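Q: What structure does this chain adopt?
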Amino acid sequence: MFTLIKKLLARQAPAKQTRNPEVNPVKILHIDSSILGPYSVSRALSADIVKRQVAAHPNATITYRDLASEPTLHLSAAHIAVFQGGAPADATLGADLATGGSLIDELIAADIVVIGAPMYNFSVPSQLKAWIDRVCVAGRTFQYGANGPEGLLPAGKKAFIASSRGGVYTGDSPAAVLEHHETYLRGVLAFMGLTDVTVIRAEGLNLGEEVKAAAVAKANAEVAAL
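A:
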């Protein structure tokens, strides 16, 4: 499995086809998952990334999902029962199943995906994990074939991850072995066929105001250079 993921991540992004932005405007899917609201660094970074993409694609349309304020239900046995042909147990589940279908449709339709992803306990927020569990679906965004799993997302998509972390997990940091955040997001996106991923990172945010300010300034400069 590790070899497979490495191969998926190593794939070159396919050449993008030219398009008429007035006839076919670029579609941006903007996802936030931080629970910190206006105090969130990942939310600020994801918003700035979207602004840069809109500046590059003035006719772009934006679909926004705030997974903290409007969470989807976590995948459950009741969901699986419906997937296997059963009827929804109640109206709440039925509505959530419809939402899950919309989440997949939004991901498939998007040309650009921007994900605000803070690190919580060495990985992604449970709200973001719930979204992933609802869009990483066999037959829709990936399939198993004779040569193993194959991503089904249309070619040409690009993803940006606005990553924020309280500690430092890059380079020779002793905490690097606990990093199951960006690597997980890159892996699951590649599994679905989305390999053109750019990470804008602000880390060390809990190591003092000076370190935080420097990390945010560096990330902001990277966004400005997109």
